[in-house]
Amino acid sequence: MDFSFVTFFLVKGLEISSPIAFAALGGVFSERGGVVNIALEGIMTVTALTLVWGAITFHSVWMGLLVAVITGMLMGLIHALVTVTFKVDHVVSGVAINIFAVGLSRFLSQSWFGQETQSAINSRLFPDLLGINSLAFWLIPITAVAWFTINRTVFGLRLRSVGENPEAADTLGVNVYFMRYAGVIISGALCGIGSATLFADKWISGMVAGRGFIALAAVIFGRWNPIGAVLASLLFGYADTVRIVFESRIPIPVQFIQMFPYVLALVVLAGLAGRARAPSADGRAFEKGEG
Amino acid sequence: MRKRGSVRFTLLEGAAPFMGFLASAIALILIVILLGEDPGNALVAIWKFTFLTSAKLAQVLSVSIPFYLSGLAVAIAFKAGVFNIGVEGQYFVGGFTAALVGIYLRVPPAIHIPLIVLAAMLGGALWASVPAILKVRRGIHEVITTILFNNIAIALVTYFVNNPFSGLQKGQSLEPQTRKILSTAVFAKLNGLFRAIGWNVPDYVYLDYSLIVAVVFGLLVWFLLSRTRYGFEIRAVGTSMDVSRYAGVKVNRVQIGAFLASGALAGLIGLQEIFAIRGFYTYSLASGVGFDGVAISLIGRNSPIGVIFSAGLFGFLRQAGYGLQLFTRVPNSVTYAIQGLMILFIVVINEVMVRVVRGLRKKEVA
């Protein structure tokens, strides 16, 4: 095992971890504000497609990224509208958005590219750095910014307060609805960036392949903390990298190696039980003037 | 208990699914217009593919069977406050264990068919058991564990179908699949029976034993939930865990039971496709049916009777999608997007209705 292989493994692992990590950061923003977001998966499914559309239409992959971030925010807005304003159960809304996202992305792909299950090829890629999509390296500064925003800014304090005790926050004059909307919309934007790190040269139906759900496990494992969530995502991402790199080299059936990240997530969650504590008002509706 | 006006309130609250359906129908028509298609044409296409002939109607019923079982599986868990998103994985594993019994056990049909149903339920319940225990004993939310188990299930059955249980000869380039099920394991069609009573069901439609399975288990779940002590406990736990615990209900045991029952029902979803339509097991069975179950259960208000209608609605939408695809320029995928929209509409309208009714009640009291 030479030096270049180690570098390759480390860098490749970062690339594979980043979609999960960005989605997990999104999950942290949403859940610290008190909104459970299992729509991460569906949001990424749609943004992965709008990214390709944006890149092809505007002849620039950066415009594609912008389009993806905006669509992510719009999808987040739907989730916020349904859960915060209409107070529907957060998991129910998330499941509905995930189902909606599958249909919507296929429909859009059909209308834009004439095929339901994959888009046209987009030749404008993000620049390479050390052989991977350079966007993956954004993970490091964005994680730092996320940590700072949540733990060291007034915005972060307010966000956490509406996730822990919305009634008290309301009494102190914090606009609970606004903060919760903000948390969910930020999580949509981060899903947009996450799908951009997933992106190769086209969109394929089902390409998100459960990463949004793994990201949720990472949020819990990382104890709703941005840095913890990213570290947990790296754990899952590198477990997956082990699978990809060693699939052909060890005599274990490939399917068992495929299970590895999921089994790892389960073991981690089972071992963690009781020690992880969600924000107190996570998943709970807030009604101004009640309670 | 019944107060004045309560019938009207119940009606208002119960209207949510219909209003949600209407709202999504309007959304569909708008999309059709946006695509530059005549909505009249689209409606005719849908009509032709769903209600025009008794054959098409039978087809809607046929495709509704897995939807019904899936909705029923999610519903019984929901009733106990358990969110089983693992129906998909339980359906894959349950179908596989049933297929093994169908392939390797040599017994007469009268014994074989019930054993297959049993094996399907056992496999599904087995796959639900670990998330159930993790939820109750370690407090890990079932939404996460069941999703992970879905992914593990798909990898596992893919392995089984490719390796130890592959039914392909060397050099055959078909999709990986198991050996064929024995002739005693085939879920025969009941079409002749329907024709005898005057319903002209053509041969290409699958109204097979799985229809009986769906009816029987629908009745059983209905009876369990509304007529037994255990069903009462399930509903009590689903309504309020704290109150149930106070009243001496063993909440953990009830939730584990409902979770396992949900998994067992999920195991039945694949019976039609494996034992009536394909005659072998493969991992590319209709995917997503388990997730559709969540929507079907919600739209049917988690009741074994309500789920009949919502499963029928999904069967209708599925066929309507084919009709649109065939006769208009509207792609089939539209109906999938509409399904998601419909759930959102229904849950939102439901919440609004609950609020409206609460407001009306307050006014009445005042």
Question: Can you lay out the helices and strands and say which pair or pack?
Answer:
The complex is a heterodimer of chains A (291) and B (366).
Chain A: H1 3-32, H2 40-57, H3 61-85, H4 90-113, E1 128-129, E2 132-133, H5 139-152, H6 154-164, H7 166-171, H8 176-198, H9 211-221, H10 226-246, H11 254-272
Antiparallel strand pairs in A: 1-2
Helix pairs in contact in A: 1-5, 1-8, 1-9, 1-10, 2-3, 2-4, 2-8, 2-9, 3-4, 3-8, 5-6, 6-8, 9-10, 9-11, 10-11
Chain B: H1 6-14, H2 16-34, H3 39-50, H4 54-79, H5 87-104, H6 109-138, H7 142-162, H8 191-196, H9 209-227, H10 229-239, H11 241-246, H12 251-267, H13 271-278, H14 289-299, H15 306-327, H16 333-365
Helix pairs in contact in B: 1-16, 2-16, 3-15, 4-9, 4-12, 4-14, 4-15, 5-6, 5-7, 5-12, 5-14, 6-7, 6-12, 9-10, 10-12, 14-15, 15-16
Describe the structure.
The complex is a heterodimer of chains A (291) and B (366). Chain A is built from eleven helices and two strands; from the N terminus they run ααααββααααααα. Chain A is mainly α. Chain A has one domain (26-116, 143-272). Chain A has a two-stranded antiparallel sheet with strand order 1-2. Chain B has 366 residues and is mainly α. Chain B has a domain at 66-304. Chain B has 16 helices and no strands. The model of chain B has no long low-confidence stretch (mean pLDDT 89). The relative contact order of chain B is 0.20. Helices cover 73% and strands 0% of the residues of chain B. Chains A and B meet through helix 4, helix 9 and helix 11 of A and helix 7, helix 14 and helix 16 of B.
Which features would summarize this protein structure in a list?
A: 291 residues; 2 strands; B: 366 residues; mainly alpha; 16 helices
So what's the oligomer here?
heterodimer
* Major beta-sheet overview of chain A: 2 strands, antiparallel
| Count of extended strands of chain A | 2
Order of H and E elements of chain B: HHHHHHHHHHHHHHHH
Number of helices of chain A: 11
Helix content of chain B: over 70%
Taking all Cα atoms into account, the compactness measure Rg of chain A is 19 Å
The N- to C-terminal Cα distance of chain A equals 62 Å
Q: pLDDT below 50 for ≥5 consecutive residues: which ranges of chain A?
A: none
Strand content of chain A: under 5%
- Number of DSSP-assigned strands of chain B: 0
User: Most extensive interface, residues per chain?
Assistant: A-B, 45 and 47 residues
Order of helices and strands of chain A: HHHHEEHHHHHHH
Count of helix runs of chain B: 16
Overall average pLDDT of chain B: 89
Radius of gyration of chain B: 22 Å
Helix content of chain A: 55-70%
Described by the principal axes of the CA atoms, the overall outline of chain B is globular
Structural class of chain B: mainly alpha
Structure classification of chain A: mainly alpha
Mean pLDDT of chain A: 89
